[in-house]
Amino acid sequence: MSMQQTLPLPGVAPERTGGYRRDHLLVAEMVRPGSRVLDVGCGDGELLQLLESRGIDGRGIELSREGVNGCVAKGLAVVQGDADTDLVNYPDDAFDYVILSQTLQATRQPKVVLENLLRIGQRAIVSFPNFGFWRMRLQLLIGGHMPRTENLPASWYDTANIHFCTIKDFVELCEQINVKMERAVALDLYGRPVPLNLPWWVWNMFGEQGVFLLSRGGQGK
Amino acid sequence: MSNVRPIPSPQTQSDDRAHEADHPSSLVAKFGMDQPLKLDCGVDLAPFQIAYQTYGELNADRSNAILICHALTGDQHVNNIHPVTGKPGWWDTMVGLGKPIDPDKYFIICSNVIGGCMGSTGPASLNPATGKMWGLDFPIITIPDMVRAQAMLIDRLGIATLFCVVGGSMGGMQVLQWTAAYPERVFATLAIACSTRHSAQNIAFHELGRQAVMADPDWRGGRYVDEDTHPHRGLAVARMAAHITYLSDAALHRKFGRRMQDRELPTFSFDADFQVESYLRYQGSSFVERFDANSYLYLTRAMDYFDIAADHNGVLAKAFTGIKTRFCVVSFTSDWLFPTSESRALVHALNASSARVSFAEIETDRGHDAFLLDVPEFLEISLAFLLAAGKARGLKDDGQS
């Protein structure tokens, strides 16, 4: 797995509001003020800074040394580590929320990581690029190549992203491991939410990325 | 084997060093019979003294004090010419004008540890009861004892809360002990290349060093000063063995390889044909000029006994429960004395106790000693951490609050 390169959003760069990325604002909005948050794969710490500015007690894990250095310079509490190997060392219920932003597709064992997120945190917030997005489909259908976009430019043989999925795939995984989806938002090419009242297949087709607020499922489904 | 040369006797007579043990060329805080240092071994040490240096000015709020804890063979002379060796301060990459720990901004304190030989009370000091050097009559001291003594010094300097406690190796152990023993007195800590407990391998290396000292016939059961000898060979061997552990295979290879020392061909003898041998002998012989053999025994022992978790029913996280201190933990990839795994164990415990911790592993081939060297990435992260913590502490760029 690698958070080594900053994992960019697919498609065009998302719009910024008040200096913050839209997907970060959406995530921040999902977090109750005053809670404790672990951001796994926190990159340069931009999301953590946004959270701390809202009175949220944030911690981070980041694989790249540059990322860690940048975070420490911002006064953030960030530990150098790897989501695949280090999450097991965190105790149960250590955080209110564990965030995995644009990192799931780069983990070796997304299912294990997801299970760990909801063991360490009461809730998890997961965002990932949607490979069911129509432009991705078109590239494979018409071009016959693995999809590449401006912000996911790596070829199949040198990408850090090894476990791409679609929104539909992710929803199925959540059901399989008994994870409750409290909230799901699909963001379009510009980082704007796809309207809520549309069916899943539309989200899966027109969502550039999915952002999910998850909690532990109850007894059975 | 006519051309075998043993490790030479110290060039400087040990008079300078012996004098420093009781009359240091630095500030001294003396504690009388009414203020004993309560040692873990059960002894009340009194009277005793702590030799220390300060750099910079304490601000009006007394909020800009940084305590630097030195490593096994370090001392209080962190940023001035050493009175015995004449060399620059031992941490001139980290401390000084324009450096991460800048005397223009912080009030910097560095004290010689209890058990040391540069002016704080230790086995090389005079025992007031006998008028002779303490030697092995000196009680066994621990890392918590060192920190307890430092806390008494900080009290005397009128500082309630230290802005930061900083140290590497044995200094890092003291840093961690500070947070475990006096969490409310430490705003931030920088714990470098250290561990919450001394590993079996490290105890083994220390035992090797101690046995080398004690096997030297000039050690005389620790009474070498009374008998006018000095176990310089044993101490030099101990230092040579230890010095290897401070480096790395890659660093030794890069620095020396198999290169010969001032010769083209092997001499077919046990002389120092290889550069690496010559280097180690130099390290050994220069060390004995400035360090007391008994002190070496006591300080290595203190590190061996260190185990924070043991004081908390074996659960490390309990040592840090509810702590508000900001931690920055740093390790180095090629450090095999205090490997990254030790730092990670500490970080996991801090995470489990919800402490505010940052951790960085720095890539370098320079081994354990990297913390004393010019490793830019390490110095940058130290600076960044101190600046951010200073901001949280309300310190301005000039150290005022």
Mind explaining what this structure looks like?
The complex is a heterodimer of chains A (221) and B (401). Chain A has 221 residues and is an alpha/beta fold. Chain A has helices spanning 22-30, 46-53, 65-73, 83-86, 110-120, 134-143, 167-176, 200-206, and strands at residues 16-17, 20-21, 36-40, 57-62, 78-80, 95-101, 121-129, 179-187, 209-216. Chain A has eight helices and nine strands. In chain A, the strands form two sheets. Chain A has a seven-stranded mixed sheet with strand order 5-4-3-6-7-9-8, sandwiched between helices. A two-stranded antiparallel ribbon of chain A has the order 1-2. The radius of gyration of chain A is 16 Å and the shape is globular. The two termini of chain A are 31 Å apart. Helix content of chain B is 33%, strand content 15%. In chain B, α2 packs across α3 (170-181), α4 runs antiparallel to α8 and α5 packs across α7 (275-290). The longest helix of chain B is centred in the last third of the chain and has 18 residues, at 376-393. Chain B is α/β, with parallel strands linked by helices and 401 residues long. Chain B has an eight-stranded mixed sheet, with helices on both faces. Chain B has a two-stranded antiparallel sheet with strand order 2-3. A two-stranded antiparallel sheet of chain B has the order 7-8. In chain B, β11, α9 and β12 form a beta-alpha-beta unit. Chain B has a domain at 20-199 and 310-393: Rossmann fold, CATH 3.40.50. The model of chain B has no long low-confidence stretch (mean pLDDT 94). The interface between A and B is medium-sized, with 21 and 26 residues. Chain A: It comes from Bradyrhizobium uaiense. Chain A: This is Methionine biosynthesis protein MetW.
